[in-house]
Amino acid sequence: MFQDIAFPQNNEKEFIEVALRLGTKALIFVYYFQNQKSFEEKKKEISEIRDINAEIGVLLDEKNINKIHVNDDYVFSKNPSKSLVENRKTYILYDFEIQERNDFLHHRNSGLNQVLCHEMKDKDKILGFSFSTLLNSKQKGQTLGRMQQNARFAKKYKLSTIAASFAKKPFELRAEHEILAFKKIIGYKT
Questions:
Q1: Domain containing residue 97: CATH number
Q2: What letter does residue 153 receive in the DSSP assignment?
Q3: Backbone angles phi, psi at 6, to 5 degrees
Q4: Which residues share a beta bridge with 180?
């Protein structure tokens, strides 16, 4: 079953309405938490949603990595550093493509390399591809090229991957067939 990923800001109902119109039956709502108490409160609130199969995810960075204790929830890290890749708490890593540095002559500076790929494979991490990143990019060609290079790395090193909307606004959500087309464009045939 296709699960889309969204980053709501107290507008979960709007995300649910748009997702249902698109035919999406499951959403992962991802939040950034400062402490464990707010995480537990939001987790309880999300578990009470009955319109759609909703789950909660946590966005971790180096500031809050030790403040939140998660068990079986989705743990995301955006544009992670090597220390976050090595950390056992993170689960889905995405937006490696967002780099301020210029590309090289013969390949893209996509944020991913063979060392990180080996580390991700050893620690059973999932590489995420964000349609929202491409949608909102000012340099779409460069971002798409970096995503394609990261997809080649993922295939070469046999990384688990996920492609989803990673929507920050309700109308950034995409239907399943659009995400499948996005996956084909970045280099996945299945």
A1: 3.20.20.140
A2: H
A3: -135, 150
A4: none
